[in-house]
Each structure stands twice: as structure tokens, then as C-alpha cells.
């Protein structure tokens, strides 16, 4: 029997935000390899399958086990939350195949990444060019991360911050952004998007620290660009229609 590796994104949490292909991939799989928490998120799909869980820092172990199972002829789903590209399992799995000269049958199944899930809850903050930055300094030196923060701030990109749990680094990042943006620039904080304990906060660059306490491992932050504003309790980043057209309902010009 010929094995296959699905590298699957589960989306942010709740079943309605899954993709059909993700559900199909998991149903077709004999083996599921996942970080313990993510295995719970797909618990309804894995009955009767071999489920191999591992802790957070064991990403290479998970990639290795998944590949070994495929070599045994199994169909395997290697699970990431959100999308498997975005700080997920796709890259380590492909690197592992590349460095071992393995030509396995594989398919990457995209999912709704946290930036998009958080943005949907906040309004339309990502309507223009944006930069996504992970504040995890486990594999990337802090100075390199902060350099990217500075360049993104300078470039007036909307900035999505993944992994903001490292509070000292988060505070340094926000201080850098504040050098380039007005204190009233909207900041969205979304904890556990599409999960039971979801929390959505819209604050701004001068006031965000008041909410630092809610920031945990499952929180994403979005800092607006120079044109982002808040209206009706939502963040809006204009696409530029206001520069050329009229938003009045009864005026066609
Ligand atoms: N591959 C994932 C990201 C993994 S990195 C994706 O595409 O979404 C882990 C980070 O993702 C967390 O620290 C947090 O910043 C973000 N995250 C994951 N799930 C989330 C959720 N449901 N709500 C808010 N942020 C989330």
C-alpha cells in the first residue's frame, strides 16, 4: 500500500470554520499526528484512528513520526492549527523530506489562519497591505524580530502579531510601533477566536497595556496603519475609496 502525507490546517477552532478538504483528509487518514491541544479540536473526526500526540516544542518529532508512518504505507494527517504554512508544520515537514531525499506523496491542505480569524472578529483591519510577525523568539533571535517590526512600522503596514505571549518582547515591539504611529491608532486583541472562551477587544496604541493581562498563548493582535479607524465598535482600514468616491447612500457620484 502506498502512503500519503496530508499536512492539514484545522482553522482557528470551531467546526464551522473548517474546510471541506480538511475534513476529507482527516477522514481518509489512518494516523493523526498532532500537538495535544489540536488533537482535541478535531476530536469528533478521529474515532478509530491511531492518534499520536506530542508537546509543543516537539515539532520535528511530529514531522519525523508522520513521515515514518507514511513510509510504512499509512495515510497520515499531520495537523497544524489555523493554516499549516503560517508558523505551522508545512515547512518543517518539507525540510525533513528534502534533507532526507524523500519523494513522498503529500498534499498541503490550507486552513483559516489566526490573522484572518482575528480580523473577521475585529471588522476589516486587513483591508490593505499587512505584515505578519511572530513574536516567538524560540527559533528566531529577538533582535531580528524587532528589526522586522521596525521595518513594518516604517512601511505603514497593518501589523499582525502572532505569539504575543512573550510580554517583554511584545512591549518592546509596541514601543517601536508607537514611534511611527499616532497614540490613537487602533489595536485589536483577539483571544481564542472561534473557540468557547473567545474575547475580542479594540483598544489603541496608548491604552493597549491595560489589556495585557488577557494576552495568552492563543491570542493574536492587529495594529492598524496610519489610516485605520474605529467605527460602530469595529476596526476599519480604508481601501482608499474615500479618496475618490462618495459614500453617501443617496448620491451616485
Ligand atoms: N498555524 C497557526 C499559527 C500557529 S502559531 C495559524 O495559521 O493560525 C500560534 C499562534 O497563533 C498563537 O500564539 C496565536 O497568536 C495564534 N492563534 C492560533 N489560534 C488562535 C485563535 N483561535 N485565536 C487567536 N489567535 C490564535
UniProtKB/TrEMBL annotation:
<dbReference type="InterPro" id="IPR014776">
    <property type="entry name" value="4pyrrole_Mease_sub2"/>
</dbReference>
<dbReference type="InterPro" id="IPR000878">
    <property type="entry name" value="4pyrrol_Mease"/>
</dbReference>
<keyword id="KW-0169">Cobalamin biosynthesis</keyword>
<protein>
    <submittedName>
        <fullName>Precorrin-3B C(17)-methyltransferase</fullName>
        <ecNumber>2.1.1.131</ecNumber>
    </submittedName>
</protein>
<dbReference type="GO" id="GO:0032259">
    <property type="term" value="P:methylation"/>
</dbReference>
<dbReference type="InterPro" id="IPR035996">
    <property type="entry name" value="4pyrrol_Methylase_sf"/>
</dbReference>
<comment type="pathway">
    <text>Cofactor biosynthesis; adenosylcobalamin biosynthesis.</text>
</comment>
<keyword id="KW-0489">Methyltransferase</keyword>
<dbReference type="Pfam" id="PF00590">
    <property type="entry name" value="TP_methylase"/>
</dbReference>
<dbReference type="GO" id="GO:0009236">
    <property type="term" value="P:cobalamin biosynthetic process"/>
</dbReference>
<feature type="domain" description="Tetrapyrrole methylase">
    <location>
        <begin position="4"/>
        <end position="207"/>
    </location>
</feature>
<keyword id="KW-0949">S-adenosyl-L-methionine</keyword>
<dbReference type="InterPro" id="IPR014777">
    <property type="entry name" value="4pyrrole_Mease_sub1"/>
</dbReference>
<dbReference type="InterPro" id="IPR051810">
    <property type="entry name" value="Precorrin_MeTrfase"/>
</dbReference>
<dbReference type="GO" id="GO:0030789">
    <property type="term" value="F:precorrin-3B C17-methyltransferase activity"/>
</dbReference>
<dbReference type="InterPro" id="IPR006363">
    <property type="entry name" value="Cbl_synth_CobJ/CibH_dom"/>
</dbReference>
<keyword id="KW-0808">Transferase</keyword>
